[in-house]
Design brief:
This protein has eight helices and nine strands. With 285 residues, it is of the alpha+beta class. It has a seven-stranded antiparallel sheet. Strands 7-8 form a two-stranded antiparallel sheet.
């Protein structure tokens, strides 16, 4: 297929709907904690010389009593990769630099060190190829084995409904991807990560889209449960020290290795939206 505009619109609509559901749930958690915090939404428009329709997105940001900083961004952009970047992207080249990308990206950093931070991203991209990618991973400063098991069970269930090989493959991919080589440690306790889930025609798009939707639904189901379980736990100064040092590692990964950060910066994305993944406070000792 050569015209993916309708498919991009379908994916865009879902990502926007998922954003609305997640933000409503997170605001409900704030209300339960006695906070009136709400998301502030900031639209942005991408700029590209000679491109009359480069797209853009909306950055959603909330700072509350439970969520120290949570960003939920949606975007749909289109244009041409730079010659220096085109050969690094699936299906693109210097001769064929055109692309579209639509997706949702979420990172939550929590006040209470016992509540795990989290990342979730799903996306649909087209070049000469078309594919879905994404995943979700848990990043607790103070890990609880039962929370890790519950999160992975949710991701496993989302995978098993589509392909019995997906979970082990995508868990392994997450373990390999969310790793900080210069520290020789993982960023968190993992989850799933997938990319280049290729779409060659309508049936393959529908299959991969359904899986990507189920990943989003699984996240929406499990993460609020973990937040509610831990947000009332007492913590002390030593817990905060561990949390801030862990956040330093998180920031290092996102600035040095994260492909989403690199993609956004290389394609003229909104700087504040791209770097919303960075924690509000961190330490290096």
């Amino acid at each position: 297929m050569s015209d993916w505009a309708g498919h991009t619109q379908r994916a865009k609509t879902w990502f926007g709907s998922l954003r609305d559901q997640i933000c409503a749930e997170f605001e409900s958690i704030e209300r339960e904690a006695g906070s009136e915090a709400s998301f502030e939404y900031t639209p942005w428009t991408r700029e590209e010389e000679g491109n009359e329709d480069p797209g853009g997105g909306v950055q959603g940001l909330m700072k509350g009593k439970v969520f120290e900083k949570v960003g939920v961004n949606v975007s749909t952009v289109r244009g041409m990769f730079s010659p220096q970047f085109a050969d690094q992207v699936n299906g693109a080249s210097v001769e064929h630099p055109n692309f579209t990308a639509t997706g949702i990206s979420l990172v939550a950093h929590m006040h209470n060190p016992h509540v795990p931070a989290v990342h979730m991203n799903t996306r649909f991209l087209t070049t000469q190829a078309a594919w879905f990618g994404g995943g979700a991973d848990l990043n607790p400063p103070l890990p609880y084995e039962e929370d890790t098991e519950e999160f992975h069970a949710s991701m496993r269930a989302a995978c098993m409904g589509h392909n019995p090989t997906y979970y082990e493959r995508y868990k392994k991919w997450a373990d390999e991807y969310f790793y900080i080589p210069h520290r020789e440690v993982h960023r968190g306790v993992g989850g799933i990560f997938y990319d280049h889930l290729e779409c060659d025609d309508d049936p393959s798009f529908d299959r991969n889209f359904a899986f990507t939707q189920d990943v989003g639904k699984a996240f929406l189901d499990i993460y609020p449960k973990l937040v509610r379980k831990r947000m009332g736990h007492e913590f002390d100064d030593a817990d905060v020290v561990q949390q801030l040092e862990y956040r330093g590692r998180y920031a290092e990964f996102n600035l040095v290795y994260d492909r989403g950060t690199i993609f956004g910066l290389k394609t003229g994305g909104n700087i504040e939206a791209i770097l919303m993944s960075l924690p509000p406070r961190a330490t290096w000792s």
